[in-house]
Amino acid sequence: MTPTSTFLRPLAAALLLASLAAPAYAEKADREKPINLEADRMSMDDINKVQVYEGNVILTQGTLQIRTAKLVVTQDADGFQKGVATGGENGLARFRQKREGKDEWIDGEAERIEHDAREDTTQFFIRGWVRSGLDEVRGHYISYNALSEKYLVTNGRGESKAAVGAPQARVRAIIQPKSKTAPAEDTAPALQLQPTPGMRSAP
Length: 203
Hints:
By secondary structure, the chain is mainly beta. Helices cover 0% and strands 42% of the residues. It has strands at 36-38, 41-45, 50-61, 64-75, 81-86, 93-98, 105-110, 112-116, 121-132, 135-145, 150-154, 172-174. Strands 4-5-8-9-7-6 form a six-stranded antiparallel β-barrel. Strand 4 (64-75) and strand 5 form a beta hairpin. Mean pLDDT is 74; it is low at 1-25, 158-165, 182-196 and 199-203.
């Protein structure tokens, strides 16, 4: 089976930006793992290097997993795959991948997910949600780069609506404090001023 999923398309306009500073390395060994695909139906265009999977689609590559109703995979001249996942339970495609060196996962969902194997970039369009550890973001568009560990979140132009008809509004983020324990209180006695031995006070 051919490598991963998804197209990298320029975003037309963005009104609001937000980035998460917390590092979130994806499992680097995933790039070297074989890709396994399951679906109810599959069609293939060998000339144009396009494969279409439909019906309960599951893509797995190492710890990376994409679940969707439809997945279109294309391959460039160098053999890198790009894919577009659309739909799924409640109209949302879902993404999951383990963080490098940690027992934590990066989870995400959107009406459309695009994954670029060459750039190691995953994009979430419309009703986007991504969680890394305890931190999470929501927005009309989310881009996550596994190599640079950076997020880009926008609310779009404002005229786009979700499949359920709800307008896409503001970007939302929940970023947990890195240390949950307060510093210990200083129990040292207050500083006392003492006269120097042998010194007389002024008359």
